[in-house]
């Protein structure tokens, strides 16, 4: 991908092109080799003996799966061999100037994760709950996924949405207040939607109408909303916490039949409404962007606003439209904090989740489905420590917490590479 | 501030669309302009006065003042709506409206008076030194903001968005702190210099890593710097919780031992004030960055890459190298902020919140300062004043200092959108100075419709 990009940019002679392709493709193999090496070093340097107990079902499940007890050292080494094999295949493919297929990277990741879990849970008397690990990942990814979807919609229309953090926080606050007053989580959700759109309206006013640099507006809006919600929290919510800041939460609604599927059932189909909505939102956003007239216009405005204007698309209106939808979607993610996770608002409770969502947007190359998966990855990262602390992991918790971010760094550097934003992203459109 | 101004005022292509009456008026205006100011002295003075007035009205400074005013008004509204006494008085507003206004005035006036008292001059103080103390507090708060703001601004000029201020500050603080209390037996100035260099180098390397990844693999610097923030945070948390690394001996808290005096930045105005030589270092950094950006070949390369990387590459500039070196310098500046925190601001030992959100504040400072070194200096001092005043306001008036964040961000927003401020205050637009009112109105209508 990045090789193509480079070639078109430089219009390089053929020999140079070949060299570039080879050079770039080695990155994937290089990263895989690095991770394999690190993993092997971990196994050699800090060996763990004992068994790892993988728990695959919950007590409430329809189908009970007995706890899978595996000897951890052999399992970890089997995984190491798999990693080595995939790395070798990737190297061979690269040497033949072919790209490493994505499924191979997926296999690699799964093996690396299994091996790591086996190693981390070795000798622990407690069970390592796979359902908890994955279900928690889905739950924790909610603000990231919604935020990333909001970011994707905005940027595809040419408006950089750095204000995701502001949309999440503002929505969390509004959802808390409305849900507390009305005793209804759904009302809170609706309010969150509006709050996200309201932040977007301000973003649009400055970025679209007044042509202010979109990065500036986004960053400043984040600060503004932190200040506003913290101020109102300590002045209004704290004095009357009973009436204004004790929300009604969404409870998990198991979907009949589907929730009885082993492992996947409790992970995917025993969740609160907001999560089911997320499952629908991701394909819906993809469809809206790629298969509808609305999406086509939106993307046209984001790639080449002048051309879009020439063929009669109202650039300003389309952008406002997109930004408002983006804010509403991100607002749904903000509702997670006060209608699913906790039953009250806390100062700056999103704690930078909007920036993570922004990273997911770029990681996902401005594609809603990929961005959602990137958000899921970050959700998994946030949850990993929770699960491993139950098992009693041998590694200092700080390093456990660090792993996902390091992996993201490696992935961005090695697997994703140069990513191309929508051409007019960040450019205000001045007619004429 | 790089606000693309819409300036259709001088565009002749738009004029034929005006209605006949307006066009006529435009003609007359042109004729007047062509003949120039003629006539007696009185008229001359009048035109000069008018001109002076117009220049004042259209100056960018007027917009800035207007932006500050608007932000303060917004802050006042927030205070007014949440003040307990105002609320109490407003329950009987129609019986005695005066009470409500008195309470309003007291709440809003008191808050801003406290803000002023905490950041500029304390007029209630018994002697001059105490009266001026708030000003020195402002400058001490401003020190890391200026240094980190310069780091973000420099990266901006090179086309990079450095959100990694937090991580860079953390590693810099850790390195400077470790040299501070981990190395002993080194005399005062040398020890301080070593600690400063360690901090700056650590910040530079942490940011340089992001630059290297961007240059070598094309990884987006926004993701990389955000991820490095988390990595730095957990790394420092681990160091702080591990005896023998950063944790104070004999303690189980994640906190370092205090910085020894031999590694501390000496006070600038005597022991009575918190202001240290760190502020002078920040000033030197401002001059240094100005020189680097405007007078050096490397700075030219940074700006060229920032403006148009493709053109820069065609012109023979090594863009990868410019990316890495600009991030190194940017990280070094943020590192200075981190080091000045540990060696001057918080010398009693620090924990993983030593960055105090400055890494993110620095982004706002850089944006408000228009990414120019002198602008960053001014913006840093302004934000330092808000920080110093905000804590006084919270202590004295019970107004949460979060309101400062609101006022700050509104100022930046309004300054970034001069047309909005001009519209609110009905100020004339410099770009449309020569167009008569009617034509302007017509154009505005058209723009609104478009």
TrEMBL record, chain A:
Keyword Transmembrane helix: yes
Transmembrane segments: 29-48, 68-95, 102-122, 128-146, 158-179, 185-208, 215-236, 273-289, 320-339, 397-416
Gene Ontology MF, one: transmembrane transporter activity
Record's bilayer topology term: Multi-pass membrane protein
Record carries keyword Transport: yes
UniProtKB keywords: Cell membrane, Membrane, Sugar transport, Transmembrane, Transmembrane helix, Transport
Organism ancestry: Bacteria, Bacillati, Actinomycetota, Actinomycetes, Micrococcales
Main location, first listed in the record: membrane
Subcellular location per the Swiss-Prot or TrEMBL entry: Cell membrane
A cellular-component GO term for this protein: plasma membrane
Protein name, UniProt field: Simple sugar transport system permease protein
One Pfam family linked to the record: BPD_transp_2
Alphabetized PANTHER family for the sequence: GUANOSINE ABC TRANSPORTER PERMEASE PROTEIN NUPQ, SUGAR ABC TRANSPORTER INTEGRAL MEMBRANE PROTEIN-RELATED
TrEMBL record, chain B:
Cellular localisation: Cell membrane
One Pfam family cited in the UniProt record for this chain: BPD_transp_2
Annotated spans, Disordered: 1-43
InterPro entries (UniProt xref): ABC_transp_permease (IPR001851)
Mode of membrane association: Multi-pass membrane protein
Extent of Acidic residues compositional bias: 14-27
Any GO CC annotation of this UniProt entry: plasma membrane
Keyword list, A-Z: Cell membrane, Membrane, Sugar transport, Transmembrane, Transmembrane helix, Transport
Membrane spanning residue stretches: 61-81, 101-121, 141-160, 167-186, 192-213, 222-241, 275-293, 362-383, 403-425
GO molecular function, a single term: transmembrane transporter activity
Lineage top rank: taxon: Bacteria
Protein name as catalogued: Simple sugar transport system permease protein
Organism listed in the record: Promicromonospora thailandica
């Amino acid at each position: 991908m990045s090789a193509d990009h480079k070639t078109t940019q430089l219009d390089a002679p053929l020999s140079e092109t070949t060299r570039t392709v080879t050079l770039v493709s080695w990155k994937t193999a290089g990263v895989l080799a690095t991770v394999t090496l690190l993993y092997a070093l971990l196994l050699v340097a800090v060996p763990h003996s004992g068994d790892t107990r993988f728990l695959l079902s919950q007590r409430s499940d329809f189908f009970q799966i007995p706890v899978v007890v595996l000897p951890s050292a052999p399992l970890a080494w089997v995984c190491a061999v798999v990693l080595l094999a995939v790395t070798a295949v990737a190297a061979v493919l690269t040497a033949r100037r072919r790209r490493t297929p994505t499924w191979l990277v997926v296999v690699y990741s799964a093996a690396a994760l299994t091996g790591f879990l086996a190693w981390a849970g070795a000798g622990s008397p407690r069970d390592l709950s796979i359902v908890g690990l994955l279900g928690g990942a889905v739950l924790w990814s909610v603000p990231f996924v919604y935020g990333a979807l909001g970011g994707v919609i905005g940027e595809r229309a040419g408006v950089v949405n750095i204000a995701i953090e502001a949309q999440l926080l503002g929505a969390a606050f509004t959802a808390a207040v409305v849900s507390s007053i009305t005793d209804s989580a759904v009302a809170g959700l609706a309010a969150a939607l509006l709050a996200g759109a309201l932040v977007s309206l301000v973003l649009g006013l400055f970025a679209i109408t007044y042509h202010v640099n979109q990065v500036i507006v986004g960053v400043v809006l984040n600060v503004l909303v932190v200040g506003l919600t913290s101020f109102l929290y300590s002045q209004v919510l704290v004095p009357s916490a009973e009436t204004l800041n004790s929300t009604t939460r969404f409870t998990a609604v198991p979907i009949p039949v589907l929730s009885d599927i082993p492992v996947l059932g409790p992970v995917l189909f025993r969740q609160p409404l907001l999560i089911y909505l997320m499952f629908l939102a991701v394909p819906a956003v993809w469809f809206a962007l790629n298969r509808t007239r609305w999406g086509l216009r939106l993307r046209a405005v984001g790639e080449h606003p002048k051309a879009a204007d020439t063929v009669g698309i109202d650039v300003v209106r389309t952008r406002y439209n997109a930004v408002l939808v983006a804010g509403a979607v991100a607002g749904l993610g903000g509702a997670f904090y006060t209608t699913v996770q906790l039953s009250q608002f806390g100062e700056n409770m999103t704690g930078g989740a909007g920036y993570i969502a922004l990273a997911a947007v770029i990681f996902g190359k401005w594609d809603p489905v990929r961005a959602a998966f990137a958000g899921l990855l970050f959700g998994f990262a946030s949850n990993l420590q929770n699960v491993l602390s139950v098992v009693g992991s041998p590694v200092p918790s700080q390093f456990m917490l660090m792993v996902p971010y390091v992996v993201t760094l490696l992935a961005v550097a090695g697997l994703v590479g140069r990513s191309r934003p929508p051409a007019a992203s960040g450019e205000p459109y001045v007619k004429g | 501030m790089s606000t693309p101004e819409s300036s259709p005022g001088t565009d002749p292509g738009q004029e034929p669309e005006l209605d006949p009456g307006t066009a006529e008026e435009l003609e007359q205006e042109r004729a007047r302009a062509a003949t120039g100011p003629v006539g007696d002295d009185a008229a001359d003075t009048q035109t000069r006065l008018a001109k002076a007035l117009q220049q004042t009205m259209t100056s960018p400074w007027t917009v800035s003042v207007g932006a500050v005013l608007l932000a303060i008004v917004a802050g006042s509204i927030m205070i007014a709506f949440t003040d307990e006494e105002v609320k109490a008085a407003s329950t009987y507003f129609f019986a005695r409206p005066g009470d409500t206004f008195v309470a309003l005035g007291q709440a809003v006036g008191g808050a801003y008076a406290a803000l002023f008292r905490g950041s500029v001059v304390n007029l209630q103080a018994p002697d001059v030194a105490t009266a001026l103390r708030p000003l020195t507090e402002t400058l001490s708060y401003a020190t890391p903001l200026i240094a980190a703001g310069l780091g973000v601004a420099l990266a901006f000029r090179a086309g990079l968005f450095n959100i990694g201020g937090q991580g860079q500050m953390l590693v810099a603080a850790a390195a400077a702190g470790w040299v501070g209390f981990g190395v002993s037996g080194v005399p005062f100035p040398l020890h301080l210099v070593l600690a400063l260099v360690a901090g700056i180098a650590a910040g530079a390397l942490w940011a340089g890593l992001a630059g290297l990844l961007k240059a070598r693999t094309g990884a987006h610097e926004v993701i990389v710097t955000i991820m490095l923030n988390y990595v730095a945070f957990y790394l420092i948390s681990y160091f702080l919780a591990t005896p023998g690394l950063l944790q104070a001996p004999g303690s189980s808290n994640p906190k370092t031992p205090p910085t020894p005096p031999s590694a501390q930045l000496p006070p600038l105005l005597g022991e009575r004030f918190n202001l240290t030589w760190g502020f002078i270092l920040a000033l030197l950094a401002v001059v240094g960055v100005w020189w680097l950006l405007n007078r050096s070949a490397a700075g030219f390369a940074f700006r060229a890459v920032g403006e148009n990387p493709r053109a820069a590459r065609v012109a023979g500039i090594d863009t990868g190298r410019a990316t890495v070196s600009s991030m190194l310098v940017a990280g070094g500046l943020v590192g200075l902020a981190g080091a000045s925190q540990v060696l001057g601001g918080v010398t009693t030992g620090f924990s993983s919140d030593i960055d105090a959100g400055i890494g993110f504040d620095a982004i706002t400072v850089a944006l408000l300062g228009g990414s120019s070194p002198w602008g960053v200096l001014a913006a840093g001092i302004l934000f330092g004043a808000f920080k110093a005043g905000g804590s006084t306001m919270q202590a004295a008036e019970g107004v949460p200092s979060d309101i400062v964040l609101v006022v700050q961000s509104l100022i930046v927003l309004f300054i970034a959108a001069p047309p909005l401020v001009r519209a609110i205050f009905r100020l004339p637009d410099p770009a449309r100075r020569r167009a008569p009112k009617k034509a302007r109105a017509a154009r505005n209508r058209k723009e609104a419709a478009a």
